[in-house]
Amino acid sequence: MRASSRAAVLEEFGRDVAVREYEVPGPEPGAVVAGVDYGGVCGTDVHLRHGRLPIPVPVVLGHEAVGHVEALGDGVGSDALGGPLAEGDRIGWASSIACNRCYYCLIEQARTLCTDRVVYGINQGADEWPHLSGGWADAIYLRPGTTVVRIPDDVSSEQVIALGCAGPTVAHGMARLGPVPAGGVVAVQGSGPVGLAAAMAARLRGAGRVVVLGAPANRLRLATELGVADAAVDITEVTDPAERLERVLPETEGGQGADVVVEATGDPGAVAEGIDMCRPNGRFLVLGQYTDQGSTPINPHRLVAKQLALTTAWGFDASDYVAFLRSLPELTARFDLARLVSVYPLQRANDALADVAAGTVTKAALAPAH
Amino acid sequence: MRASSRAAVLEEFGRDVAVREYEVPGPEPGAVVAGVDYGGVCGTDVHLRHGRLPIPVPVVLGHEAVGHVEALGDGVGSDALGGPLAEGDRIGWASSIACNRCYYCLIEQARTLCTDRVVYGINQGADEWPHLSGGWADAIYLRPGTTVVRIPDDVSSEQVIALGCAGPTVAHGMARLGPVPAGGVVAVQGSGPVGLAAAMAARLRGAGRVVVLGAPANRLRLATELGVADAAVDITEVTDPAERLERVLPETEGGQGADVVVEATGDPGAVAEGIDMCRPNGRFLVLGQYTDQGSTPINPHRLVAKQLALTTAWGFDASDYVAFLRSLPELTARFDLARLVSVYPLQRANDALADVAAGTVTKAALAPAH
Amino acid sequence: MRASSRAAVLEEFGRDVAVREYEVPGPEPGAVVAGVDYGGVCGTDVHLRHGRLPIPVPVVLGHEAVGHVEALGDGVGSDALGGPLAEGDRIGWASSIACNRCYYCLIEQARTLCTDRVVYGINQGADEWPHLSGGWADAIYLRPGTTVVRIPDDVSSEQVIALGCAGPTVAHGMARLGPVPAGGVVAVQGSGPVGLAAAMAARLRGAGRVVVLGAPANRLRLATELGVADAAVDITEVTDPAERLERVLPETEGGQGADVVVEATGDPGAVAEGIDMCRPNGRFLVLGQYTDQGSTPINPHRLVAKQLALTTAWGFDASDYVAFLRSLPELTARFDLARLVSVYPLQRANDALADVAAGTVTKAALAPAH
Amino acid sequence: MRASSRAAVLEEFGRDVAVREYEVPGPEPGAVVAGVDYGGVCGTDVHLRHGRLPIPVPVVLGHEAVGHVEALGDGVGSDALGGPLAEGDRIGWASSIACNRCYYCLIEQARTLCTDRVVYGINQGADEWPHLSGGWADAIYLRPGTTVVRIPDDVSSEQVIALGCAGPTVAHGMARLGPVPAGGVVAVQGSGPVGLAAAMAARLRGAGRVVVLGAPANRLRLATELGVADAAVDITEVTDPAERLERVLPETEGGQGADVVVEATGDPGAVAEGIDMCRPNGRFLVLGQYTDQGSTPINPHRLVAKQLALTTAWGFDASDYVAFLRSLPELTARFDLARLVSVYPLQRANDALADVAAGTVTKAALAPAH
């Protein structure tokens, strides 16, 4: 186990992150010290940097990551699936630990609504022990209670990071949505990591035809080339929602609308548009409204007259993370996930953040060893 | 079987209905001629009279009704539940016959979205044979394919009509919502027949606390006296949505919001308000947006951040009607349904319509025999 | 807080329990010391006494209990529902604490399958600190992580203990079963606490007609008098399963069978019988097969030809316990639960066990203060 | 449209089928005359020939078929999905027409339990008009109410017949089962058409690992070569159920058992074995117990202690048939379905029956045009 680790630290909102050095604590019983192979850079990190969420600073960023075991605390001999775990094993871990005491953990069993979660890379200040609580670092200290899963041999670490936290977020959404109709039509609004992950997840569950609406053009092209999307609509090109609807409906059975629509844009206006894309008796999964951007005009009569069901999902918990990891061998067999990833060395974290903010990369990942 | 029957006919939109006389056809095989005991008057009838829906005229109104068998066509020896059926038996019937051929009937099995339904009292013109296709009449001709159910002896015909089409509409909504948490809190927006039926249905399924928001005051008082509502908020008195929320939340566990909210107002603005009344991880059943009143500002972030599920239901089909009838013995044992009903003779159909339009009665019913 | 507490201890399998005295530890942070008002005696306690389950001895028995707060550890200011908690408050608590680390807790979210649960009154030896880990005592030490709920004022402690662990076990079963059809027919096999709790739970959720099959006669009479059962079949009187079926079917709609059957007997043979009591497309909830009594002949063709769904539930977790407590105000408003209870002073624990074994009481409860 | 059609007729139970000639009626309004491209031969046909089911004779056999439009009755301009339909179009059709009047059609909406279905190739006697009511013929008369679907251009008629009625039967089962966990483990008992269709359907819905138990060896080899099965157990080789369990468990995560088990054998004993193959909290879909072969020893404690849910499905209806057809483009993209099919000319129907009875072919299909 290494004695010290570099970490990319957000010290003050609005400022660049800085690389600092921390001592790596030996793992207490139940804990794991992991070397980081890739730390994903997510749109949320851009928001965090700008201070749009109430988090402690300084903080080691990086809520998405994949790595390998450097040291195991006493009592840690197996992963969350019951398989053996040893030094050197490649692992992923759920980004949060729910409190298991609050009403939402214990009674509702909706742990993503836990009011007292530990979230790596977000709400654990770097000034507090064990300091290394984020994935943008050579090493991360995974506390007792972290859900750690060994990565199957046929899945590369790059493939794990390719969808970042979008993968498990979508797994959660799919669990709440229920079955995708085999051979049915799914429309996905948004072509960022959540949109692409939703499109892949829908295909994996048997969707027959997937239409993706989003931008920029190169991301849509990638989605088509990877076999994720059967059809794509570039929203920078087709800017009128009515016209977009006219592009989507002919892709659906009898022009009636999609069996399932997944919203993954973050734009409130997409919700009204998505309602119009659903077929009567359809289902609408809204995944993308993570920040409060205020109200948008929605006509509830259209929901009711088509008898739609609208489902939402907030983040993901340990079971969603595992569900996603479990689906990775199938995903990687079907889609060349590595093509989504742009790798940066740790010291170029600010460049990665800038590229994510600009949308010039699909998925940025810091690779400390590079 | 009587030879002729009076019927209250809407001959022209915007005009009063007029009582006309029609010959009663003998029932063809599979058909039933029913004497009408009560024909309910629904808010929809007010809309129909004003020509707000595209229906044929002249038309015998009356999509809600209860009566008794006057004559059975060949081959009709049992009701939809398999019990024996004989002349004189008191019966109810589903107001619509789905086509069983269209995509929504056959493939989606969502018969309320059937594109080719027969609906008594609405889309069967009085000029067409068999003329008597509405419940505001001495007799109605129930075609082959109508779902006819014998009324249990311990349920009066007045109790059947008390909730009108609101009863089966709510049964449909509850089927789509899934279980009401036993002992949980349900908030109902609206105190018309749908709202009252929803509150009763929630209690019947085990709700522990029901809060009703609506108007006018006498309807809320009735809801409280009948044991339907534990708490009521008069929206003509508390006109500010924020203040209404402050009245509802303290009625819920930990002030967190209702486990289930049911919207039954028809007012688009109620949807945003209902979202705020839901607890995190709650469920929202939107039942009341039957007419298109345009868009309303809704904040999708609030749906997602609370991880809500929003369900809708459009009308009801034969199975919902039967589900409602089946629940009537339990409903009548708990709630004095007859208190909801104001009875008018057939020739006073226009007075009944006026009183429904004015909201001065909870449930108006025409009783041809009175 | 009292300094010491008596406790009824099973010191050796097959022997009588003995009353011993233990010091009451002051509560650590997160813990609660509760005075016990009633400690229920369950059929499982009879099995435990005979050593039929691998538990540590000596052990303070009592996995069902209700009491009041004697002392609150630091940080405990509210109950599991978020309401305030203070000394003297009457409380109930879930009998187990799931580990929140194992595959079944974390990934399947099926905490009743947790492989490492703390279970009060069962798997916490009396020789280990804090010694007072069972409900057959003046006081019990509730560890951090215990789900504690304040009892509503309108529910007596006797009413809480009346269904014992059967109440939350049935709440779990109902959650897995899904909605009971309002006005539908439910057949319950078994008239012990689980059977009675299932019948009540079904009624609470809207069942229209409940048939109970069981014994002895006085328990069935009680079920009928309390309004729990509409019809009862005494299995000691009608000993032939085919004849029992002939008694049950006429109670169901069209003689087709019950919409829902709940098995709560513990007798393997009841499963085949219950399958025959289900209507086509019905649902069968098997709750009673807790001990392994070997195989029984079952005809799978009957399951498939009727297209049945068979669901099971194993024990209950914190959320089921809370769901049950939440439903108590409704249950107590409808059923005189206190009539089920026979109270014994703590020192008569062996008599209570004997009476439970003999089936001469419906629900025995030890009341240390008596 | 041809004037007359040959048909393979079962004239008497236990005898060979004979080729007869019938006049082809012109289609009444709503009806379709279809030329048959392939008529599938199913295990059920073997049973029918031996008189094991109460059907009318003489009868044109063939409940599975695929063909093309020869003549459309008045009013038939579109298929069940709303797409245009014209002479020459290749089509499939649901084998049954539910009555839409009985309790199971109308109220339970479980049309596979309809008590009065028309079933092509099974319950429509050849002596009755329109005579040509089975698929083992040059042409079949599809009555008004038949669910007809146009076959997509990228799916061949041979691919449609490859799974026969097993495809829609499994679609029904999957609908009742609910989602297959993406990346999860599915064990399928049986390697006949239902077993193979179940394995494919599970993969299509995201299963990560599929284990098939069955025989004979060549069928298992085919399943492996087609990518349907990841592992196969030959039950003629491993004849001890305990040993089979030892072969299956290591294929599952942590040796805990399959997330989903599908029974498709028809052997009652497979049910007890399947229960043991399920992981705790798993789901068991029993599809194969179509004939009554009596009781088998089952231990209900094992169901409950593992908290299993057991689901069944009986046959399929129009919506299941459409669901299957919809999934065919995805299925054919992944699996070389045509490899399952052995084609026989119509006059060799008896040879086809003999080969199906002997298990020497996976799927036999009569091709009248050959």
Task: Write up what this structure looks like.
- Four copies of one chain form a homotetramer.
- Chain A has 370 residues and is an alpha/beta fold.
- Chain A has helices spanning 43-49, 103-106, 157-161, 166-177, 193-204, 217-225, 241-248, 269-277, 300-305, 318-334, 349-358, and strands at residues 4-10, 18-23, 32-41, 59-60, 65-72, 90-93, 96-97, 118-119, 139-142, 148-150, 185-189, 209-214, 231-234, 258-263, 278-286, 296-298, 309-312, 341-344, 363-366.
- In chain A, the strands form four sheets. In chain A, strands 3, 5, 6, 9, 10, 18 and 19 form a seven-stranded mixed beta sheet that branches. A six-stranded parallel beta sheet of chain A has the order 13-12-11-14-15-17, sandwiched between helices. A three-stranded antiparallel beta sheet of chain A has the order 2-1-4, with no helix packed on it.
- In chain A, strand 18 (341-344), helix 11 and strand 19 form a beta-alpha-beta unit.
- Chains in contact: A-B, A-C, A-D, B-C, B-D, C-D.
- Strand 17 of chain A pairs antiparallel with strand 17 of chain B, so a sheet runs across the interface.
